[in-house]
Amino acid sequence: MDPPEQRSLRELAAALRSHQVKASTLVRRALSSRRFGAYREVDEARAVQQADAADAALAEGSDCGPLQGIVVSVKDLYGVPGYRTYGGCPGPLPERFERPGPVVQKVLDQRAVVIGKTHTVQFAFGGVGTNPHHPTPINPWDPVDHRAPGGSSSGAGVSLCEGSALLALGTDTAGSVRIPASWTGNVGLKTTAGRWSTDGIVPLSSTLDTAGILARTMDDLTLAFRAIDPAGPPAMPALELGDLRFGRCDTLLFDGCSPGVVEVFDGALGELTRAGGQLRSLALPELEPTWQLFQRGGTVAAELHGFLSAELPECLDTLDPNVGARLADAAQLSASELSDRRETLSGLAAAADLHLQEVDVLVCPTVANTPPRLAEVDSVASYGPQNLLCLRNTSMASYLGLCAVTMPIGCDAAGMPVGLQLIARGHHEPRLLAVAQCVEQVLGNSQERLGVPPRCRPDFVAPNG
User: Fold this and answer.
1) How many whole angstroms separate alpha carbon 413 and alpha carbon 390?
2) In this predicted model, what pLDDT tens digit does every residue of 159-191 receive, in sequence order?
3) Which of these is catalytic: 24, 33, 73, 152?
4) Which of 33, 73, 164, 176 is catalytic?
5) 20 to 30 A from 47, CA-CA: which of 5, 190, 241, 394?
6) Catalytic: 176?
7) Is the torsion defined by CA of 448, 450, 454, 460 positive or negative?
8) Where does residue 87 rank: exposed (0-12), middle (13-18), buried (19+ CB within 10 A)?
9) What SS3 class is residue 186?
């Protein structure tokens, strides 16, 4: 029998209910797997207690939901009972940020096991994944150098790679689920803004914040989405690859990619078309003005500055320099200009929605650049360009009100994972996930496509011995 961490959530759910596997076994294996610094805090006693409670409920015939007994890591922006919330800050935020919102409560009500709080970029405002207030988690894919794990959900993907979690909760405002999922060889879902409540989550942008999930495979991601979705398990359409229309837009999304990224993307797209998928050229003129607005700060910088000024003014003096530099001009943005930017985004989103009706999904590389070594982003000047580039392709989906998934399709010239981003119209998550499952059936899941990260292999020896 395969080790628990190599089995799907669907298989583990069945094994837990047939008493072939116990949640207490899953959590103890998860606790012993921590080695890449994914967590700000782990409460071993609480996790074991939750696992024992899940086992006891199942023994009594009480089935609380698909996530019962499944080990989950939670980004340290979510309120979780028993844990302080730091939001990437040097010290804990006020107690009101510890209250769970609907997403965490839905997970807890199903008797999932929360193993701990994973690291985040301070206030989620960054895509690279670094934070000077806390150690940056190690990306397991580079056997020699410490490369960025992707942010802002910087510990989430790492927790899946090392096996300390079977599912991870993250947030995504401009790419904060999809970037770490892509750079660590996992899958990730950015929900449409407004589909899932962001109550109980430290805010970055009142306009664009979304709750999201990272998982090891599309089947795991789909199971988790259906378990958490507030409308109840949505019906999933039955799709065949030959019926699917993949849209490709070469404007902007392929510029400046690291060596190997486009080549891996083109190879995967070739596999899909040879298997029967339909590839169409798609015009999406909204991308350029959206990108220009993003580079000016969009609405996010002003919304974060407004939140901090009103609710956490003391935190303005302890900002990560990479965060502070991007907020420098936000205080000067007038209310009328912020309103104009929101109205502009609304118009661009409506126009993009019309174009996207021509295809099932828009496809592009999830992230243009390979994960940088930490030494390559150790100053504001060097961090800025890398951060901007890694957010470009993911931010377009966010700013245009869409939903998106990323899935691993290969490794670039540096040996780091490359993600395929599938973007769909807003509130079309069930169809998007069904499309992604069709794609994974052709391309294979992460382990089939990429193998095991070098640092996670049993025979791995650190360069320093």
Assistant:
1) 17
2) 999 999 999 999 999 999 999 999 999 999 999
3) 152
4) 176
5) 190
6) yes
7) positive
8) buried
9) coil
